[in-house]
Amino acid sequence: MGNAASDHGTPRKILLATDLSARGDRALERALSLCVGWNAELVIVHALEDTHDPPDMSRRPALPSWHGLPDAVSVARRRIAQGLRADLGERVGKAAVFVAEGEPAEVIERIAAGEACDLIITGTAREQPFVLRPYTLGKTVDRLLRRSTIPILVVRNRARSAYEHIVAATDFSDSSAVALQVALRFFPLQRLALLHAYEAPYQTLLTDPARYQDAHHQDQYRGSLERELETFLAKLSLPHEDRRRIDPLIEFGRPESLFRDYVFHHDADLVVFGTYGHHAVFEALIGSTAKGIASMLPCDALIVPRAIVQNPA
Q1: How many domains does the chain have?
Q2: The last residue of a domain, from among 124, 155, 186
Q3: What confidence tier does 145 reach under pLDDT thresholds 50, 70, 90?
Q4: What end-to-end distance do the CA atoms of the chain give, in Å?
Q5: With the C-alpha atoms ordered 291, 84, 81, 35, is the resulting torsion angle positive or negative?
Q6: Which residues, listed in sequence order, are joined to residue 156 by a DSSP beta bridge?
Q7: How far apart are CA 187 and CA 166, in angstroms?
Q8: Does residue 303 share a domain with residue 176?
């Protein structure tokens, strides 16, 4: 995945997908912060959909002859350049800017591959359109999750500091194993909480699920999960330094509620997870849309798509 130089280290090239909205400034802030911390290059992409439809000239006022039809790509490129100059100053020349027409997920995926990017960063979904042909970033991220072979960082909060409290989700699947390894590689200095959320086994099939919530059965089942967690970590063959940075947690509760509660009570600023697991845990966690990620988790989310498992670094 991505650059060969980053296969065993932090990303060397980051793609920021922007819709030019004010909310997208948070993703830009985080992208800049990570580029500085990782000494990575920045690639900025804005996609335009259906720009070939002719405008309704009947509603346009008469214009002088020197006013031609607006070029959506040129307008977008100018807006991005103006914003970059304001936000980056002298560093604007170091960012590669791409404005392309087409289905946004396809545009982002194509440029990410062509530029050998190691990470895609986006903001959260927005509701209101803007002046150019709009696309819904949430829909785009949903499509990227099904197609991308590199991790996707969905930014919700302002980048007031580097990520400090990171929690990785696991259900002991290959997907969660790769997500954990990516998190350890991207953040080589931070400690990571590794959280497994569980409910009573076969709870939906039991006539009396409360039976499995008493202390005896909880201890029995929890013990088996602790052994499974140790086996999960042992199979990863992590370096000793990385293994020491992991704080494993096994907690009883619904995954979607438990992760949200953990983030609130521990001031976690990043949750890391894969998109495919043994028991549809992550399906419950993120729902069916990227907008669900933002509404469920009050922090940023690093999502490792299933495709990366099929072609791991």
Answers
A1: 2
A2: 155
A3: confident
A4: 6
A5: negative
A6: none
A7: 9
A8: yes
- Our CA dihedral for 146, 149, 155, 156, rounded to 10 degrees, sits at 20
Please report, to the nearest 10 degrees, the dihedral formed by the alpha carbons of residues 305, 308, 309, 310 taken in order.
120
Q: Are 48 and 73 a contacting pair, CB within 8 Å?
A: yes
Lowest-confidence region among 91-95, 164-168, 283-287, 305-309: 283-287
CA distance 83 to 24: 11
Q: Name 107's Cβ contacts closer than 8 Å, sequence gap at least 6.
A: 45, 47, 100, 101
Contact criterion met (CB below 8 Å) for 123 and 21: yes
Report residue 130: phi and psi, to 5°.
Answer: -125, -175
pLDDT of residue 239: 93
231 in a structural domain: yes
pLDDT (tens digit per residue) in 82-125: 766 666 666 555 788 888 888 888 999 999 999 999 999 998 76
Q: Which of 17, 16, 294, 301 lies closest to 140, judged by CA?
A: 17
The Cα 18–Cα 122 span in angstroms is: 7
